[in-house]
Design brief:
The chain is 38% helix and 13% strand. The protein contains 25 helices and 22 strands. Helix 16 (413-422) packs antiparallel against helix 22.
Length: 757
């Protein structure tokens, strides 16, 4: 038996014998030729025939993976994403030069032989023996196509790819049998079309259409003779003959193809000579794969769409099924993103916050009544370099956002007001609201166990001048912390929990907002801008909450056939009565008209909103809306380590950042641009009367030292009696400050939040 070479590989004789074994088997199977079996080669052939017969009869051809195109609401392209950049085209849309070039160089007898070319086998064997190696193979285009099918089926799994390309007798046998089937079922033209669409041309280009665009910025149907010859030459070794990296080697290879085309009569010698003198003429289009290439700063929205697809059961029962469909591609995804709104968001962010600033900003716009996300962006671009990030600050952690969201401060207060109104509290409800007070001793929760005061913590208002009593409208305009904590003590936390549940308000990590006063009134818990914008949109739509939605429709192309896929729909439900929503709209209109949000107010449009800042000014918010658009803007440090005092943001110095002076103008400009040219409907505002004098108390600076007798109806006696189920005599009160004995603090790890903004 021949010995192995010292290097451990097969000797030339062994290589030839191995090649001959496969080739003889192929010829025998195809032509029924009875070839003599001799020695070990005969045994190998016999065993191979048995394996051949045991293979399944039909080759399963997976749909070719293609690029997916993500569009905005008007059909404009946002980005293309793909695991393999490929666009399948019909043979009629492939240049005749390309068809002839690939056949000439890869399988010149393609139209003359069956699945296996016996002449080619013998010719290759003879040349390999002469060269003392395996310098030439004998795979037909059909066999190469079958091998590419195996590779395509392996996807991005390196183990499966290795199995699909390994040089073994078993794999060659499998390839041969399926080549026979393919020849019988498809015919030559379809095989050529499939081959040109499946094969790899280097530079991330799969299929001839992607290759034509990559190297020449043209279409496959428009390839010239020199261009076609270059692409045909690349196939044998995409890395070796890459014209972008080595134009000399690529040119030599192109000229070999042209020479071969002349030899087989596809072109004349003169045509070949002329084409060989032509420059490569590359006009390279760089690969544009993924959301990082999205236009108008829509990279984060693009990734959100991808996350929706990979997580929503409507696209597959398991994450593996959904990932398979996504990687297969061929999808045209039309989204809800409105170009005008998206441009306005990005322009506003760019104008007000620089990407190099110590803090970042994120903004999201949502359409009331539909849940459609119309705009989403942030000041730090999508990427992995300096002043870039891959985290989408507008969404929850499960969709690519920060781990916990960001504390919202006083933008949480409208939820408390809505809950109180739903509980029957009047729109002119009044509370003592001193400048400083403890949190309540106990506050009822949704369970039988109330929240209790264990730390004796206190809270205070933004300014010492803010001391009540206040009515709801004024308390909302000034964002009076103590007022809303007293309101929470009045109604308990469960109504607020029910309200936030109906409004889809959850923490950035997906958990419910904890039942502690600081979270339930002053926004000490982290939420996302998308969550806040969607919740406020319910006020704009008179109480109807709609879950956010990003995808309008999806069309998938598989094997030349287009089909529509089911997409997630927004679910709308009533979160509060129209009267409650109208009342909240009236309250929040006052915030932008004469309250803390005046710098955010829109001109010539009904608008409403709420400011918010948190402890140490690590976060600042403005969340607002018109009847036809809602938006949330957050400004702060993603690490929550930057205190926004004595800080420059967007070139503007701030001794202290407020929700009204930094996120407010971002919201104003984003909304103004997004709504330009759109209708300007009005709110259904309600009249909120002042309470009778006997209920208002004495609104002097010391908090209202009214009559101490509870039966005189002053605020202290009213609140005291309310919190003690009517068992405490209001006459024991000592004025407006006494109501504070019912409150205590709770930071929930995020501070009390609730700065006026």
């Amino acid at each position: 038996m021949p010995k192995k070479r010292s290097g451990g590989g097969l000797s030339p004789t062994q290589q030839a014998a191995k090649f001959l074994g496969v080739s003889v088997l192929a010829g025998a199977v195809l032509a029924g030729i009875a070839l003599p079996a001799f020695g070990a080669l005969g045994l190998a052939a016999k065993g191979s025939v048995e394996s051949f017969d045991e293979l399944p009869a039909n080759l399963k051809t997976p749909p070719l993976s293609q690029r997916t195109t993500i569009l905005d609401a008007e059909g404009g392209q946002i980005a293309t994403v793909y695991s393999r950049d490929r666009t399948v085209v019909d043979l009629k849309n492939i240049s005749p030069y390309m068809q002839k070039a690939i056949v000439a160089i890869e399988d010149s007898r393609f139209y003359e032989h069956g699945a296996i070319d016996l002449k080619g086998v013998l010719r290759a064997l003879n040349k390999n023996v002469q060269s003392s190696g395996v310098s030439q193979g004998a795979s037909t285009l059909t066999q190469q196509y079958v091998k590419n099918v195996f590779v395509e089926e392996a996807g991005d799994d390196p183990t499966k790819v290795a199995q699909a390309t390994q040089q073994t007798i078993g794999r060659k046998i499998k390839e041969l049998k399926y080549a026979i089937q393919v020849e019988e079922e498809l015919g030559k033209k379809k095989i050529l079309e499939n081959y040109l669409n499946i094969t790899f041309f280097g530079e991330q280009a799969y299929g001839v259409e992607a290759a034509a665009q990559r190297y020449f910025s043209t279409h496959a149907k428009d390839l010239t003779l020199p261009q076609a010859a270059l692409l045909a030459g690349i196939v044998q070794s995409p890395s070796l003959y890459d014209p972008v990296k080595d134009d000399v080697t690529a040119t030599n290879r192109r000229n070999v193809v042209l020479k071969r085309m002349a030899e087989v009569g596809d072109i004349t010698q003169a045509e070949a000579a002329k084409a060989q003198q032509a420059p490569l003429g590359l006009k390279v289009t760089q690969p544009k794969n993924g959301c990082i290439t999205a236009v108008q700063g829509a990279s984060f929205f693009c990734k959100y769409v991808e996350r929706v697809f990979l997580s929503d059961p409507v696209f597959g029962k398991t994450k593996e099924e959904r990932a398979k469909v996504w990687n297969q591609g061929g999808l045209t995804i039309r989204t809800t993103l409105e170009p005008q709104a998206q441009k306005s968001v990005q322009d506003s962010l760019k104008d007000h916050v620089y990407k190099s600033d110590k803090v970042a900003a994120a903004a999201t716009l949502v359409e009331p009544g539909t849940g459609k996300i119309l705009g989403m962006g942030q000041s730090k671009p999508y990427g992995y370099g300096k002043n870039e990030t891959e985290y989408n600050y507008s969404v929850n952690a499960s969709m690519g956002g920060s781990n916990y969201g960001f504390p919202t401060g006083s933008t949480f207060k409208p939820f408390v007001a809505a809950a109180a109104l739903e509980e029957g509290r009047p729109a002119n409800q009044s509370y003592p609201a001193p400048y400083e007070m403890p949190y309540p001793d106990t506050v009822q929760t949704c369970s039988s166990k109330p929240w209790t005061n264990e730390g004796n913590d206190k809270l205070e208002n933004e300014s010492e001048s803010e001391k009540g009593p206040y009515q709801l409208k004024k308390a909302m305009e000034l964002s009076v912390n103590t007022y809303f904590v007293q309101m929470l003590a009045d109604i308990g936390m469960c109504p607020v929990v029910k309200m936030t549940d109906k409004l889809g308000v959850v923490q950035g990590n997906g958990d419910k907002v904890p039942e502690v006063p600081s979270s339930m009134t002053l926004g000490s818990t982290g939420l996302s801008p998308l969550t806040m914008a969607s919740a406020y949109a319910a006020f704009a739509s008179r109480g109807m909450y709609c879950t956010p939605v990003a995808i309008e429709s999806i069309t998938q192309t598989v094997g030349g056939t287009k089909k529509s896929l089911e997409v997630p729909k927004s679910t709308c439900s009533r979160a509060m009565s129209e009267k409650t929503a109208d009342t909240v709209n009236t309250l929040l209109s006052g915030v932008t008209d004469s309250g803390t949000g005046q710098q955010a107010g829109l001109t010539g449009r009904a608008n409403a909103g709420k400011t918010g800042t948190t402890d140490s000014r690590k976060n600042a918010w403005f969340v607002g809306y018109t009847p036809n658009l809602a938006g949330a803007v957050w400004v702060g440090s993603a690490t929550q380590k930057v205190e926004m005092t004595n800080i420059t943001i967007g070139g503007v110095y701030h001794s202290q950042v407020y929700g009204g002076d930094t996120p407010g103008p971002i919201w104003r400009d984003a909304m103004t641009g997004a709504l330009e040219g759109k209708e300007a409907p009005s709110f259904n505002l309600v009249n909120i009367p002042n309470p009778p004098d006997k209920d208002r108390g004495n609104e002097n600076d010391d908090g209202g030292n009214g009559d101490d007798n509870g039966d005189n109806g002053n605020d202290d006696g009213f609140l005291t009696g309310l919190l003690t189920n009517g068992t405490t005599n209001g006459g024991n009160s000592t004025g407006g400050n006494d109501g504070g004995t019912f409150f205590q603090g709770q930071s929930n790890g995020n501070g009390n939040g609730g700065g006026r903004g």
